Amino acid sequence: MKLMLGDDDIDDIELFHEAVKEVRPDAELIVSYNGRQVLSKLQTETPAVIFLDINMPEMNGWECLKYLKDDIALKDIPVVMYTTSSSKRDIDIARNLGAFKLVTKPDRFQDLLKIISGILGEIDN
């Protein structure tokens, strides 16, 4: 299974990668540091799910999500907005733009394991 993460925070990327390895050891994590890189890598990669941070340079998560959902070839890939925000406004925006869901970046590694495991379980079904 291939997963894609769009995030510009190196610490968050490393933590996410460790969690993915623990939850799904056979998974491949494709990392992009902004929305433009996500779109570029999607020309040659087809992940089962994309996790997108909202605040990234060059092209933020909202812009990237909108592009993905407007593209006939990419619109069916589930996109999880993976962010520090838990505001109702951001949850509504995510829903309106077609995100699979919005999850708040947890403070504890164990919580991240549960989040990733739960999402992958939903994607598998």
Overview of this structure, please?
Helices cover 46% and strands 18% of the residues. The protein has 125 residues and is an alpha/beta fold. It has one domain: Rossmann fold. Strands 2-1-3-4-5 form a five-stranded parallel β-sheet, with helices on both faces. Helix 1 packs across helix 5. The longest helix has 16 residues, at 109-124. The modification 4-aspartylphosphate is found at residue 53.
What is this structure, in a nutshell?
The protein has five helices and five strands, in the order E-H-E-H-E-H-E-H-E-H.
Biggest sheet layout? 5 strands, parallel
Give me the strand/helix succession: EHEHEHEHEH
Give the quaternary arrangement of the chains: single chain
- Count the DSSP helices: 5
Structural class: alpha/beta
Question: Regions with pLDDT < 50 over 5+ consecutive residues?
Answer: none
Q: pLDDT average, as an integer?
A: 95
The amount of beta strand, in percent, is: 15-25%
Give the class-level CATH name.
Answer: Alpha Beta
Output the radius of gyration: 13 Å
Spatial strand sequence of the major β-sheet: 2-1-3-4-5
Mind telling me the CATH superfamily name?
A: Response regulator
The tally of domains stands at 1
Shape category? globular
Q: Determine the fraction of residues in helical runs and give it as a percent range.
A: 40-55%
CATH architecture grouping: 3-Layer(aba) Sandwich
Number of strands: 5
Could you give the distance between the termini? Answer: 14 Å
CATH domain topology: Rossmann fold
